[in-house]
Amino acid sequence: MRPPAQTASLTIAMLVALVAAPAAAADPDGQTRPEVTIRTVQPDPVSGRLASFSLKEGVKVVTEDGERRIPTADLVRIAFDVSPREQLSQGPEGTPLPDLTTFTLAGGDVISGRVADSRDNAVIVQTHDLGEVTLSMEALSQIITAQGAGPAHRDSVQWFFRTLAKDEDAVLLANGDVLRGFIAGIDAEGLSIDGVTGPVKAAFRLVLAAQIAHPPPIPPLTPYAVVHLRDSGRLTVTSLDCDDTEVNAQTQSSGSVHFRLDRLAAIDVSGGRWVWLTELRPVSFEQVPMLSLGWDFAVNKNVRGGPITVDGQRYEHGIGVHSRSVLIYELDAAYREFVTSFGMDDDSGPLADVNATILVDGQRRFEKLHVRRGTLVGPIRLDVSRAGRIELVVDFGDNGDVQDRFDWIEPALIR
User: Is the pLDDT of residue 266 over 50?
Assistant: First the structure.
């Protein structure tokens, strides 16, 4: 098990300009600014042209009604108009990029790109949005190759991460074998593992996924933002400033990043009035199966460990459960509203059928019977002023608990 990373886990070695900017409009002063849709603590989104954004000061947006300023505390997400989205097919000077490898860092950040080289206990990754990125081995947590991300191996990769002990290094191969040991290095050829029988080199063409053990990360100080790049993953930043062309930010690991504004897909803001339920720990969870084995709840994943997807739409925030389940959270009269949507995950089956209920201090405040696959319910907003606790209940509908893989989607509390 490696010690926690104390130094920078991510540095930007170069910046690249590969593609045209997303849709934008020109202001009377001649500046071109991107179109954005801003989600706030209020029900209705705000659309317009981004004038500026600072994690410290908030956002300034030009709408049809004039310029509007929104404080950071009220922000949830700034989504950029990035369609049509270009495909990642070429590197610098038109050189083709091979299939991408996705690296998850210990703090939850994700970087996708081509493994180019290794240097000083680090792996060099060529990305589309940030150029060349250096990731220290001490910062890496999970690796999924392009082969492992494909539909043919999806279940195997999910099983690998679900069943593997969190305190061991391991590599999943395409033939189903699991190599255990100490992952000593990564380069363009593959992964080097010091196993019980000696050093082994696993070529990338044979690798589906890998885990590198780490202590739990230290949460960033609030407010912070998660920057979603168009093609290369996401970064947690503790400061961020952007104007009409550039973004300057400080990553969670104290490394500075600078990149073009047109490489942004979205910015999620945390630490304000909007609190994701997924960031809180329930005081109680109960799952009572009728026929099948028991299931735990899954944070920001469906109950089988895959992405949360309802009616063809994928969501980053949510809680996956299986009927019958009861999640209870203490509110301590600290919030004004509870917001959520829900639905049967697309990974469920045609027999799935549940009844969903939300109780506040033991009183039924919302109920939806016979929730089936292919339908999204919500968003629902409930007044929880002065409330002590909230219960999210997913009960058996028709067919008992057969195929009942259910998602609470984007559940949040508003201060």
Answer: yes
